[in-house]
Amino acid sequence: xxxxxxxxxxxxxxxxxxxxxxxxxxxxxxxxxxxxxxxxxxxxxxxxxxxxxxxxxxxxxxxxxxxxxxxxxxxxxxxxxxxxxxxxxxxxxxxxxxxxxxxxxxxxxxxxxxxxxxxxxxxxxxxxxxxxxxxxxxxxxxxxxxxxxxxxxxxxxxxxxxxxxxxxxxxxxxxxxxxxxxxxxxxxxxxxxxxxxxxxxxxxxxxxxxxxxxxxxxxxxxxxxxxxxxxxxxx
Length: 235
Ligand SMILES: C[S@@+](CC[C@H](N)C(=O)[O-])C[C@H]1O[C@@H](n2cnc3c(N)ncnc32)[C@H](O)[C@@H]1O
Description:
The protein has helices at 8-16, 25-34, 53-62, 73-85, 121-131, 151-161, 169-179, 206-221; strands at 43-47, 65-70, 91-94, 107-113, 132-145, 182-187, 226-234. By secondary structure, it is α/β, with parallel strands linked by helices. It has a single domain (18-144, 165-198, 227-234), classed as Vaccinia Virus protein VP39 (Rossmann fold). Helix 5 crosses helix 7 (169-179). S-adenosylmethionine binds at residues 10, 13, 20-22, 48-50, 53, 69-72, 75, 96-98, 113-115, 118-119.
């Protein structure tokens, strides 16, 4: 049996049941997909779907055939519950982005929203490329550092979030090209802002507060250095 170690941050996210956990929130997701050519016939994969907020939105809004995968069992359970509650035919699978048990050339769109920093990027991008149909689109909202960090700073951030690596814009472009993607477009979101919808309850474990406090502390201390971009590209 393989035992997976999640960072305390990821574990806390799953316990808090935060609806959406990517910068820009669901409103940024909506704005991004408005520009894409999605129909009822589109097959869409949401990698690291978390509680399934985006997957549910895409199924409801476009009637698309949506699949979500996530590695964390609590996230998977929450996403499954959401689809059952809203009677949405979204398939949820527990799997790693680095090895996805789905067939080649199957999806018209694959999305990852604040996920790839947690994984081995070359491996995950190879999987994403394999799963996309020719001319399929990959869209990602991903953490992007604005400048190189000192070793100590990088260690603190990687350790806390359980990030595999910290990536600058040019590194992302190199990784996407290396995986075979074309027509790479990078955007900075300046207009849509989201406030995380945290649901603190009275009987919450004190450690969860501490972890979220640390998260907000890191965000404010590294405000200038930590950012994110929207990447879109084609197979
Ligand atoms: C910051 S959350 C974002 C969740 C969701 N995309 C959203 O925007 O709300 C990161 C998600 O990535 C998932 N994750 C982390 N490592 C993963 C991996 N190797 N394979 C699949 N999912 C992973 C976590 O379980 C978590 O649900």
